[in-house]
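[09:14] KT: can someone run the structure on this one? pasting the chain below
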Amino acid sequence: MGYKEIAGSPLLYILVAVGLLYIIGFAALFLKKSFNRCVELGMEKAAVINVIKSSVVYSIVPSIAIVIGFFSLTTVLGIPWPWWRLSVIGSVSYELMAADMAAKGMGYVTTAEMLAANDPKVFGAMMIIMSLGMLGGFFVLIPFGKKITSGLMKARSNTNSTWGIVMNNAFMLTLAAVFIPFMLLGDPVQMATFLTSVLIALGISFLAKKLKAAWLSNFIMAITLILGMASSIVWTSILK
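[09:31] RB: done, structure tokens below
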């Protein structure tokens, strides 16, 4: 059994479907418990239902970007594995980066070369990297998550100190320090797509402030993802 056969195997479809059903059931249970708790606290059912509806509406546009990312991943990883990763805990940028790093670590220059080789070991390596690579955060959050969160909230509530703001921004800068060099030092298409996405995000942010459209700020990431992916197609045709 080769790479492509494993990536689209019925067993993998079944395992992913079972996992997703569990997650959906878990989410539905917590939704019911949360709804009942809101009613117990004296909130009107109609108000709670409106909050749920508005949350669903505001989730649609970000989901479109995820769906587009899903289709881009299926060309490399098949359907079930990206379906699982992007439905539960993964992100488009992380999955693509992990897949590319795994391919290069196994000696392939490009993902196209890797797919042509049809080596099952590569798919296994990708699954391990994508799964175990995400566990580091959990191992930190389980023992220290509550202390970190309460410490940040306490620091941010202190109006006489800017330490909370500094700590919050430090987390974002750390993420940027991890991903940005990878994008800038990659091939020209990656660099051009990244710079285009930055300009798009800045443009939308400017429009939101100029037009005083606060709602537009909620969709900056989703719109930037969609337009950034579209720009990658243009840059690929120009630079390759």
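[09:33] KT: thanks! The two ends are 33 Å apart (CA to CA).
[09:34] RB: yep, looked fine to me
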